[in-house]
Design goal:
2 domains, 5-stranded parallel β-sheet, two-stranded antiparallel ribbon, 9 strands, elongated, binds adenosine-5'-triphosphate, binds magnesium ion
Length: 288
């Protein structure tokens, strides 16, 4: 890893000072950066933007509930080998002799052997079971692993910058946490959100933005919501408001009270939350 490399943000992505500090700390320590935060707060996008800003290729590993650590290292394709062994042609029988032809490289292997340092995104690590992070401890620490089938050691030519994201669905093991630099992306305050909106909709009218921001944070503050809307939902909603040409005044009642906002389906994703919000508005009105 080039020591002088530093992340200073990017024109497409609003990174707060503490987030930039975290990325640079991970670069300096040469440890994986573990990023947590509510859904839609830009965790995945951070990896994309760090890679772009540092001019490093990005390798992505999107983790599912069934993902195993081994798949990131390599897999031995025994089925193809068996099939080839049953073919009569000469080319096939030559192939079969060499087991290397049936070792499928995983994303960690690709990251370790890339000609230049890369950013390696391990996205949503909490989706997999608890063995997954434990099984990667040594590989991420020592940046090497052993291939039993070919008896070779794969050692990283360059240490990749590893960015790991988690939505906190499961706790990660302590031994894993010890090896990471940790950062929690706090939900953006109004000012930061304004900057984020400016990146996506630079020509948005000021009054619409101000009113939309107020409505959005009011919705988020409703106590007991099952699913608070996040940045990406706010951006979707703004896009719809623009597409439907909805003016700022339509987000407020005549007497400047909160109303159920138009196109609220972009913000509230289940009927209980919509009812809760409606009830709250109703109570606020009757208490006047
Ligand atoms: N700081 C930011 N600057 C610019 N755009 C942002 C920022 N944060 C979020 N966004 C917008 O929100 C969208 C969602 O971000 P992203 O997919 O990275 O979230 P996430 O945290 O990975 O969510 P999830 O946990 O659901 O995967 C992005 O495509 C981007 O448009
Ligand atoms: Mg994501």
């Amino acid at each position: 890893m080039r020591q002088e490399t530093r992340f200073e943000g990017s024109p497409n992505y609003v990174a707060t000072e503490d987030l930039k500090l975290a990325v640079n700390a991970a670069l300096t320590l040469q440890r994986p950066l573990l990023i947590k935060g509510e859904p839609g707060t830009g965790k995945t996008m951070l990896a994309e933007e760090v890679a772009a800003a540092l001019d490093m290729p990005l390798l992505q590993w999107h983790v599912k509930s069934t993902t195993k650590a081994q798949q990131g290292l390599y897999e031995y394709d025994a089925v193809s080998r068996l099939r080839d062994s049953q073919l009569a042609d000469i080319e096939g029988s030559e192939r079969v002799k060499d087991i290397h032809n049936y070792i499928v490289k995983g994303v960690l292997w690709q990251a370790f052997t890339a000609p230049q340092p890369v950013v390696l995104l391990i996205d949503e690590i909490d989706k997999a079971d608890i063995e997954f992070p434990n099984d990667l401890l040594r590989e991420l620490d020592r940046m090497e692993f052993y291939v039993y089938e070919t008896r070779e050691m794969v050692v990283a030519k360059h240490r990749p910058l590893v960015i790991i994201t988690s939505n906190n669905e499961k706790e990660l093991p302590d031994a894993f946490l010890r090896r990471c630099f940790f950062h929690y992306i706090k939900f953006p305050d109004k000012e930061t959100m304004q900057d984020i909106v400016n990146v996506h909709f630079p020509r948005l009218k000021k009054d619409l933005l101000a009113q939309a921001l107020q409505t959005f944070y009011e919705v988020r503050e409703v106590p007991g919501l099952k699913k608070k809307p996040s940045t990406s939902e706010f951006l979707d909603w703004l896009k719809l408001l623009l597409a439907e040409d909805i003016p700022a005044e339509a987000l407020r009642s005549q007497d400047n009270k909160a109303i159920v906002p138009p196109l609220h389906g972009a913000l509230l994703k289940n009927e209980q939350d919509v009812h809760l919000f409606e009830r709250l508005l109703f109570m606020a009105r009757n208490n006047r």
